[in-house]
Amino acid sequence: MRRVSFATLMCAVLGVRLLAGTQERGGEPAFEVVSVKPNPGERVARVPGAPDRFVAEMTLRDLIRLAWELPGFRIAGTPSWAESERFVINAKAPRAPVPGEMLLMVQRMLRERFALRTHFESRDMEGYELVQVRGDRRRGLSLKPAELDCEPFLTGRRPMKESGVDDNGRLRCAPRVSTVGGVVTQHLTGANLSRLITSLENLLARSVVDRTGLQGSFDLELTFSVEGLHVANRPLPAAGSPEGPAVFTALEEQLGLRLAPARARVEVFVIDAVERPTPD
Fold first, then answer.
1. pLDDT category of residue 221 using cuts at 50, 70 and 90
2. Could you tell me the residue ranges of all domains in the chain?
3. Which CB contacts under 8 angstroms, 24+ apart, belong to 46-53?
4. Global pTM exceeds 0.85
């Protein structure tokens, strides 16, 4: 995997699982071989056609976000070096991918190589509730009930390639994110609204609770300006002056949904101890 891009991070915040193979050690999935080194300032290329490998270049904070599928605002106690220093991770597993196991392997690697010790605690935070705009519960034009349930493909229970392709030759269930002139367009097909919630939490760095009452899978397209927004606690890239609507406006006009300010009890991932790893 090359240097983590905006699109890569957006796939993470949309809740798309990355997969790799595992080795069982004491009943817990683990990589067979792991190399951890400080970033040499060079791009790291992912080996194509190697599903038994996890190759990444990112900060410890971003590794934690991936491994535990957390938005940045739910991580506390991170030392400054864990947010700025990048590490190159090369890990190999001895067998084919099994859905969900990669996350457990990365968690174990962080505990073993970074001496990461953590706990969860509940905190009261400012956030939002996602509600429907119209009293008659009519949805926006860009939020439609899906003909195909893509959740089995998005969670890795079924291979993404089995979802088929659309008229443009793209995988039907694969999420798409594009950026043009400082404007982002997200496409989700056959997805639960929980994936939109995850994306909004990362973009806004606030808790978002679903109060829409909408059930099932949906196709949605959301276009908004990146101005003032962050993903993984970093400014989003913008080329030129943003011309799209703010995300709050886009939700109302395109999806018929609204973000209402609200406080919520949030489970926070607290770092008790962590150390820089000894390079291989």
1. very high
2. 6-120, 124-266
3. 46/1, 46/2, 51/19, 51/20, 51/21, 51/96, 51/97, 52/20, 52/21, 52/92, 52/93, 52/94, 52/95, 52/96, 52/97, 53/20, 53/90, 53/91, 53/92, 53/93
4. no
